[in-house]
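User: I'm new to structure prediction. If I give you an amino acid sequence, what do you actually give back? Let's try with this one:
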Amino acid sequence: MKDAVDIGDLPQGRAGLRVLVTSYRSNPHVGGQGVYVRELSAALLRQGCRVSVASGPPYPELEPGIALIRLPSLDLFEESNAMLALRWRHLASKADRGEWLAHNTGAFGEMTAFARRLRAYLAREGDRFDVVHDNQTLAFPMIAIARRMPLLTTLHHPIDIDRDYAIAGAESWWKRALVKRWHGFVQTQAATARRLPRFLCVSEASRRAYAERCGVDPARIAVAHNGIDHEAFHVDPAVERDPDLIVAMASADVPIKGLDVLVEALAKIAPERPGLRLRVIGTLREGPTKRMLERTGLSDRVEFRAGLTRTEIAHLFRRAGLFVSASRFEGFGFPPAEAMACGAPVVVSDGGALPEVAGDAGIVTPVGDAEALARAIAHVVDNRDIAHAMSLRGPEWARSAFVWDHHAQAAISLYHELIQARTGVRAAQ
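Assistant: Good question. You get back a string of structure tokens that encode the predicted 3D arrangement of the chain. For your 429 residues, that looks like this:
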């Protein structure tokens, strides 16, 4: 089994290495896909590569000097009536037909549609690039691309984990059926991954999950943690920390994010701590969290804030007396890493990569254990000396462990390996 990439032994990027970073969607403001594409491409550019990005909509925000290649999808989530979005010109495109049919029958077809468009683009323009670095598209056409040219795939975490939690949390048989239909692509992703040559994984936990759940040979998976934006997320001594303010982040009220566990834990300790309150970066919708807040009487002590900029999020992290992630699984976990960089003490579950992210700077509790989480939260908020020590350790750990240039160097090492392997095959032929 190949261990995590040793950053100290990596070669620097050679000037002129032509890298095409690909992503089926790259929303710069929601989720981690756009963040990953933006930061990876920028770090590759700093390492001396010539970088282009091919993406479907929403398109990423890129640094100057990085070319954006738009591969438009039908973008059916933005249509008021997706059923009526098909046009005569779309019938000539297998990608368009497949995307429309999947969306309107309750499935998610964007990844396969993007891979088909990418394969067609590279059939015309592939000679412009030395290597393709794909952001977990994992659709069957990527196998044909890997046969044509060097392909490295980033793995974040197996989506069947999300599917299993969503099925378990569904409240009726027909909702479970809808969840299964929507996540039909996970079998395709696993089958594709077993046939692709090389991977860069963002955590050791995610590498194990891909090996165990998808049958991917772990020897083909190298590990390098994501970086974070240290210019945006850093300590500011001028900002006064509020010891009674707990901050969490939940982009959606879904079981895998563990927001229900956090609310249950808060209910156990809030009566003895009248000043304690929780601010969640996200939107409160009808669902299990809202019902739990009403049942526990904590609605007036939990606030949801959506649409925050990175600057506003960083300021909130600097004010927080504690950041908590009770997620049941994370392939990496940007929020706790960014919170630590801002000096917030961090308590996380042992879901997936969160213990890797917290390192020795945070406190780790068992997944789904509201009692243990409550004890950990109380331990920090009731002990200012412990909280202060964690505020000092966190930024130091984040600065050393989460560096985008290190992640890019790991990728470049794998690019060389893939290119050399293909050169050797051609020489043998």
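You can read the tokens as a compact description of the fold. Here is one thing that stands out. The chain has 16 helices and 13 strands.
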